[in-house]
Design brief:
It is built from 17 helices and 52 strands. The strands form 15 sheets. Strands 1, 2, 4, 5, 8, 13 and 15 form a seven-stranded antiparallel beta sheet that branches. Strand 16 and strand 17 form a beta hairpin. The chain is α+β, with helices and mostly antiparallel strands. Residues 15-195 form the Eph LBD domain.
């Protein structure tokens, strides 16, 4: 073998060197043809390493053809081979007398073979392929001294493609003066690398320089592929276009391009390029490469909890569980547990047991799960709020309710359940009187029911209450109607709807238990119910006969003409009213204005029952009205239990007009049937003789005239609240407001505008049920001491009345809503006088300027917002009563919405626009800033008013005296002081220091 290269494979970063004459040790054994052409000169450097150079310089002789051939160079993996030549080449001009023979280039050739040529093989230049003619870039460089110095040239040429196992290089000199200082042969490659946590091996570029070699990487240890990691190796040995990646597996994180195990106390639950996380609170990891931290004892992680979440535990029991009960609903309220276990997903389950016995006579209490018919609003399990309403419970039963607080880790450990218990006794007047309830007929909007009694009605029977609600809409609000007979036609229903009915009786002693629930559906919209048609026919036939009999009777008594005329007129008016746009709400009948009757007596007869005065026993005077005393007493109708009543009387010596005005209220009240409207029992108008056996003494020379209404034990709401300042929970106050809203919703749906809605006109019964009363005033407000004459001549209770009603007498249900807002304010301030001592005129001006009553002390933000909503200047922007009602229902169902108090966040909201701008103030300066009266700071301070206490007693004169001259500013400051006074009063009562 001849000329095999003895060089070791030298690897530079992106080059593999196949031959380098500067590093070759020993003889190179290159061949020259002819032997005296090229000269191989080997010298030693300082480190005794050989320096191989090849020289040729036959510039004087013509026709030179001198060859120098390398040893055999193994190709290795190379596909494209590069040759780097370093040489000097003398400029022919620098040599004298050589023109014509001297050359300045030489040629590079190569020959591929699969093995070295044998020594015997003759050198044949024609076997070699030419690579290029090599010329010097520059032969000399100029030194600073002006000398010319031979310059070293470096030229690189690509050889190939090389396909056989090895090759020779050959240098042809044709008469130049050359010193070949070094020859380096190499090929390029992409060096092994780590990219995106994947390892890529050394890769030789493609032979074709325009195409790339695709290389797939292998994930490093403890890493896993996301998208197949790839790199492309370019012709120049550069890695290009990284694609895909690997990520560190669970329990490992990336450090310096490798995946290392998480340290103890750290964990990594998901594969990915994230770092190991510190163990969350109340958990730990003891080993390396933890994929999760284990919870400390007593703490847990719910299935859906992320591993990054702190470990938690079940909550402690709910706190302060209380029950409230009224006629129809039982409310349970509680406070969230003191320890939520570190979680926010607390819900509550109500577990109900009915317990009988255990009355102390040795009878053991027996408890069993409650009847499934019990309705829980919003639901029995998974309640997110802190209250629940329970409906359809049995009367005279003992219930034990367990309210269980649960969170996502309840039940995971062995901890006891977090229960709070309350026992409720539901009193009632007796077992159910009504057995089976039947549907007699139904139409699209009505269902006629009748029922049988389980036993003979007791002697103190009063009436039946039929309660119903839409089956699909499990909601707190239900409807009810009363009847004295065991049948009823329930109207105002929706077509094709299933309703749930149950009936109970009322006796003088209270309500009996309800009948079971019965479900009946109304008819579909397009199918007329046969039963209804039948009844309508029967009714009209019956009505006709009645009319004939009545007509005959009235003709005989000489009153027919007037009656028929009056009746026709009123019917006509009613029809006109109906057609003139008032649409009755879903079947609720429309209010008929008694003034539309020619003879108001007819209205009284139509809507109020005449009571025999001998059935009434007046006991004492409880108040004074415009027309006469108001007494309390008992109404004892034969065959019924006596009931407590209030009796309004008309003073003796009245004029006929006064009698009519007095009875007007009865003919209005008699049209209403709603649990939150004062119920008219009847009137006394006709008796010839009246003997009063009571303390209430009448000096009647005229016929006695009385209006008998149900008795309300706690009297008027305003005085009632004033005597109970601070004694109710917010929820109880909201309950009162809700009752009023129910009554007002009913009135507005009937088309009745109250005009004098105020706390003084709301009556309160023994169960805190509030009922709307005082209906005479829808036309005249003469007897309301609050009413003042307006510019338009009407008498109006200014503080309660909407601006458009004061200004133009535009009364509507929307103006009633304004008044309702004032009633809310009265309720929340325990009967405080709206706008305190401000004059009516100032009230009107302040409202006009945009001022609104501030929230009473301790008033939830939500309620004050509702008030402000009711006091919108534009009447059509105020809520309707049913909106108010559903808003209050939401608050009741979710009492936590009542927790944020206005006083917590601001002190002096004074108009809807200004409301959010008021910060808590502490100094006089802050206070004046808060009411935008900062310019008077010095006036106050100079006059010695430096504390809140000191200003609380200031009068309007004091304000003027310290130099506040503008009326509007005086008004603003004094209003704020009034409010402040009220707040100070409350703060002092609650024991805080100001
Ligand atoms: O605040 P009070 O006790 O409640 O004083 C007034 C007074 O009569 C004059 O209106 C009371 N009052 C009016 N109607 C009733 C009623 N139905 N039940 C009880 N008290 C009544 C009212």
């Amino acid at each position: 073998m001849e000329g095999r290269s003895t060089l070791a494979l030298v690897v530079e970063s992106d080059k593999v060197v196949l031959l380098d004459t500067t590093t070759a040790l020993g003889e190179l054994d290159w061949k020259t043809y002819p032997v005296n052409g090229w000269d191989a000169i080997t010298e030693m450097d300082e480190q005794n390493r050989p320096i191989h150079t090849f020289q040729v310089c036959h510039v004087m002789e013509p026709n030179q053809n001198n060859w120098l051939r390398s040893g055999w160079i193994q190709r290795q993996a190379a596909q494209r081979v590069y040759v780097e030549l370093r040489f000097t080449l003398r400029d022919c001009n620098s040599i004298p007398w050589v023109s014509g023979t001297c050359k300045e280039t030489f040629n590079l050739f190569y020959l591929q073979t699969d093995e070295p040529l044998s020594a015997a093989t003759r050198f044949r230049p024609t076997d070699y392929a030419k690579v290029d003619t090599i010329a010097a870039d520059e032969s000399f460089t100029q030194t600073d001294l002006g000398d010319r110095v031979l310059r070293l040239n470096t030229e690189v040429r690509e050889v190939g493609p090389v396909t056989q196992k090895g090759f020779y290089l050959a240098f042809q000199d044709v008469g130049a003066c050359i010193a070949l200082v070094s020859v380096k042969v190499f090929y390029k490659r992409c060096p092994s690398t780590l990219r995106n946590l994947a390892a890529f091996p050394d890769t030789v570029p493609h032979m074709d320089s325009s195409s790339l070699v695709e290389v797939r990487g292998a994930c490093v240890e403890n890493a896993e592929e996301r998208d197949t990691p790839k790199l492309y190796c370019g012709a120049d040995g550069d890695w290009l276009v990284p694609l895909g990646r690997c990520v560190c597996s669970i329990g490992h994180e990336e450090t310096d391009g490798y995946c290392r195990a998480c340290k103890p106390g750290f964990f990594k639950a998901y594969a990915g390029n994230t770092k190991c996380s510190k163990c969350p609170l109340r958990s730990s990891s003891h080993d390396q490469a933890a994929t999760i931290c284990h919870c400390d004892k007593g703490f847990y992680r719910a299935i859906k909890d992320p591993s990054t979440m702190a470990c938690t535990r079940p909550p402690s029991p709910p706190r302060n569980l209380v029950s409230l009960i009224n006629d129809t609903a039982l409310f349970l309220q509680w406070m969230p547990p003191s320890d939520t276990g570190g979680r926010k997903d607390i819900t509550y389950n109500i577990l109900c047991q009915r317990c009988d016995g255990g009355d102390g006579d040795g009878v053991v209490t027996q408890c069993e799960p409650c009847d499934p018919d019990l309705r829980f609003i919003p639901r029995p399990l998974g309640i997110t709020g802190t209250s629940v309403a329970i409906l359809d419970f049995a009367m005279q039963a003992n219930y034990t309710f367990h309210v269980e607080a649960v969170n996502g880790v309840s039940g995971l450990g062995v901890a006891a359940r977090s229960l709070a218990n309350v026992t409720v006794n539901t009193h009632q007047a007796g077992p159910a009187l009504v057995g089976v309830v039947r549907k007699d007929w139904s139409s699209q909007n009505s269902i006629a029911l009748s029922w049988s009694e389980v036993e003979q009605p007791p002697s103190d029977f009063v009436d039946y209450e039929v309660k119903y609600y839409e089956k699909e809409q499990e909601q707190l609000s239900y409807s009810s109607t009363r009847t004295k007979t065991p049948s009823v036609v329930v109207t105002g229903l929706r077509p094709s709807t299933v309703y749930v009915f149950h009936v109970r009786a009322r006796t003088a002693a209270g309500y009996t238990a309800y009948s079971p629930n019965f479900e009946f559906a109304t008819a579909a919209e397009d199918i007329a119910d046969q039963g209804q048609v039948l009844v309508v026919v029967t009714a009209s036939v019956g009505g006709f006969s009645l009319l004939v009999i009545l007509t005959l009777f009235l003709l005989i008594t000489g009153r027919c003409q007037g009656y028929i005329k009056a009746r026709m007129k009123s019917e006509e008016k009613r029809r006109t009213r109906f057609h003139s746009g008032h649409v009755p709400f879903s079947g609720i009948k429309t209010y008929v204005d008694p003034d539309t009757y020619e003879d108001p007596t007819q209205a009284v007869e139509e809507f109020a029952k005449e009571i025999d005065p001998s059935y009434i026993c007046i006991e004492r005077v409880i108040g004074a009205g415009e027309f006469g005393e108001v007494c309390s007493g008992r109404l004892r109708i034969p065959g019924r239990m006596a009931i407590a009543v209030a009796i309004k009387t008309l003073k003796g010596g009245y004029m006929e007009q006064q009698r009519r005005d007095f009875l007007r209220e009865a003919s209005i009240m008699g049209q209403f049937n709603n649990p939150n409207i004062i119920r008219l029992e009847g009137v006394v108008t006709k008796s010839k003789l009246f003997i009063c056996l009571s303390v209430c003494v009448f000096m009647h020379i005229d016929l006695p005239v009385m209006i008998v209404v149900e008795y309300m034990e706690n009297g008027a709401l305003d005085s009632f609240l004033r005597t109970r300042d601070g004694q109710f929970t917010v929820l109880q106050l909201v309950g009162m407001m809700r009752g009023i809203a129910v009554g007002m919703t009913y009135l507005s749906e009937m088309g009745y505008v109250h005009r004098d809605l105020a706390a003084r006109n709301i009556l309160v019964d023994e169960n805190l049920v509030c009922k709307v009363s005082d209906f005479g005033m829808s036309r005249v407000l003469e007897d309301d001491t609050e009413a003042a004459y307006t510019a338009t001549g009407g008498k109006i209770p200014i503080r309660w009345t909407a601006p458009e009603a004061i200004a133009y007498g535009k009364f509507s249900s929307s103006s009633d809503v304004w008044s309702y807002g004032i009633v809310m304010w009265e309720v929340m301030s325990y009967g405080e006088r709206p706008y305190w001592e401000m004059s009516n005129q100032d009230v009107i001006l302040s409202i006009e300027e945009g001022y609104r009553l501030p929230a009473p002390m301790g008033c939830p933000v939500t309620l004050h917002q509702l008030m402000l909503h009711c006091w919108q200047k534009e009447s059509n922007q105020r809520p309707r009563f049913n909106d108010v009602l559903s808003f209050l229902d939401k608050l009741i169902i979710n009492p936590s919405s009542l927790l944020a108090l206005v006083n917590d966040v601001q002190s002096f909201p004074d108009s809807p626009e200004d409301m959010p701008d008021y910060p808590l103030f502490i100094s006089i300066g802050d206070w004046l800033d808060s009411i935008k009266m900062s310019q008077y700071k010095n006036n106050f301070l100079a006059a010695g008013y430096t504390t809140l206490d000191s200003i609380s007693t200031m009068s309007i004169d004091d304000i003027r005296r310290i130099g506040v001259c503008l009326i509007g500013h005086q008004r603003r400051i004094i209003s704020s002081i009034q409010s402040l006074r009220l707040q100070l009063h409350h703060i002092q009562q609650s024991g805080f220091q100001v």
